[in-house]
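Researcher: Please generate the 3D structure of the following complex. Treat every line as part of one assembly.
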Amino acid sequence: MGDYRKLWSNLNMNLEKHDVLCAVLPEIYSKVYLSQNDRPEGMNYFNFVVSEVHGLRIEELDNHKKQGGKVIGTFCVYVPDEVILAAGAIGVGLCGGSQFWIEDGEKVLPRNLCPLIKAFVGAKVSATCPYFQSCDMLVGETTCDGKKKAWEILNDYTPVHVMELPQMKREKNIEDWKMEIKEFISRIEELTGNKITFEKLKETVILCNDKRKALKRLYELRKNIPSPISGLDSLLISQIAFYDDPQRFIQKVNELCDELDERLKSLQPNGKKRILITGTPMAIPNWKMHSIIESLNAEIVVEETCTGTRYFENFVEENANDMDELIENIARRYMKVNCACFTPNAGRIEDIIKYVKEYKADGVIYYNLSFCQTYSVEYKKVEEALNKENIPVMFIETDYSEEDSGQIKTRVEAFIEMI
Amino acid sequence: MGDYRKLWSNLNMNLEKHDVLCAVLPEIYSKVYLSQNDRPEGMNYFNFVVSEVHGLRIEELDNHKKQGGKVIGTFCVYVPDEVILAAGAIGVGLCGGSQFWIEDGEKVLPRNLCPLIKAFVGAKVSATCPYFQSCDMLVGETTCDGKKKAWEILNDYTPVHVMELPQMKREKNIEDWKMEIKEFISRIEELTGNKITFEKLKETVILCNDKRKALKRLYELRKNIPSPISGLDSLLISQIAFYDDPQRFIQKVNELCDELDERLKSLQPNGKKRILITGTPMAIPNWKMHSIIESLNAEIVVEETCTGTRYFENFVEENANDMDELIENIARRYMKVNCACFTPNAGRIEDIIKYVKEYKADGVIYYNLSFCQTYSVEYKKVEEALNKENIPVMFIETDYSEEDSGQIKTRVEAFIEMI
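Model: Done. Output below.
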């Protein structure tokens, strides 16, 4: 990485602590990613993005801010990117995926809490995440208990605008979400000094749909037997989607897909078991499950998670006569995301079964971040439905540490041999 | 207890398993309650209620049902009792407080979950709770993650009507809760076949306010130094409030308060430290914390919990011109309850400090049921506020088992000596 110390210093970062984090990442990335065989050329761009993860993109954010632009931190796929972009702001996903931040998170949060939440709060408390440091405003949401209350702690550091996500999906709830989006629009107009016009919002709706289409195109390719791209690489792309420049990202993903289209012609069977992962999100650089599973005789062909299909499935209806209709279209699209924080959540079960069939998965691994209660309680119904369809499933609850990696590997190996 | 086997059998209970539960309770009650010295005569009624906990009251519910009446199970102080009573139904609080039910709860729920939730689900799964068995409908709410998703499991056993409690307290949220109450009214009218009239609802608003006044009168007496009634006894009364006949309960609590008024004249200082407990609810027969604390040189003078002040503080405004206004009054009163499932929840911190001063508490014990995330994350802000006021506070996270009782006793003893 180039010399960004001055940039990081201006962001009031703890440089000493940050150095420790920076030292570790290239090693892990090399071990997990660069050790893979026969990676598509198109992954070079994403290798580069990771190598510059706290560098070039941060510089871009800094230039944006120097020109008066604002940076908005988000933590959830329900928050409409369209609105952020239409206000001329840059949105960055701040969910944390590293064990490095847990200790600092536990200074202000209870230990018995989701590691993703402890990590992002820890990233802020330790002042070692330049994305966090670059944000003018954070956008939280009332999704799970942990996040809902974590905003109250984070608000002491940076102002948090909390959107009240409904907990059910009745028609009145879609109306409620539409109102929340309108309020979010007002808030972001106030912050940026820019009015969100109907024209501008139509543009960003199309841009975000184009990003969804690019990811959908990538995932469709994984339906092939075997997949022309590893689950690890696909996960990385899905993680980078949360903070890279949208236009550039769309271009690079499509270039990669062009290359993968070519690869299809010469694919050879590889005898690997095909796995669908479902459950809680995997924030960068959480590659734990994918690296364990793909070190065995298996490939992950799809993720029914926020860092998977939930991010891009369903497009916003682009036809609208006016602002109100367009906002409703946005609300309706986002309310289709099937997260377990909603009750009931039968749609998710239908999605899992559909994806198992479309992606020809041999088995399902249910990935539950430690202490995530919405997903862990929901497991029973998912398991029942999969049993009915004779789809093998195993449940794994885990955090970011390496303590249980050996145990997980043994269990997954047994599962893979059985399916 | 009298012979209720036929009654229990008709309720499709697991008699064998229930016998085990019945055998244990009198012993525990004797050890915890009857060992207390100098209890008010008025507690005899509540002793009797406990001795008949699965008997007489169940018989009353049975008679009510034989006359075509309905029984509604509830799990939260946000659910308006006024509505249940106005429909001619009987409401019973079903939150579970016994370790006995945990094992059965864990058959369908994850282990890392609040014991109160595991207990009530276990009570249903094991068919050993005659209150559960007597219910025609259950009313759930979107409060915490665990409960929100538990209704989906419980619905397989008995129909659950879920009310969507808001997560914030803006004016629009009060409107939302008003709508939810209206929907609840429709649902319960449908179930009971009774129309809830303006006159009837006014009556039950007054009745429920009278119950609140009786409890408030009791708690006011605890402000005396020393309190004329133990925390254990006061807790028991608060627990029984959830399922006893309202009119009888009001009468018996007022009779007890008359006796306590007399007692005040001859109260002698007892040198005990005065404790405020704040946090998560204590469902019957969860007497763990109170029995530990009051076995030491301390008395619990007030509980800022759902089985404490949150149950009765604030009355419903009785003046209303029409049904719509009355429902709004009900919505407004309930939305004042300061549970940690709301964000923000600054009102609770103000309440705790206010009660410490009014009840002249020497210290605060923060009681957090295991895995309850809303309350555990909120602790940090409560602790900060109490530190500012120089009010000593200690945090205890625990479940229903006796494994940590010794440890808790040691910690509390040290706390009491220090304050």
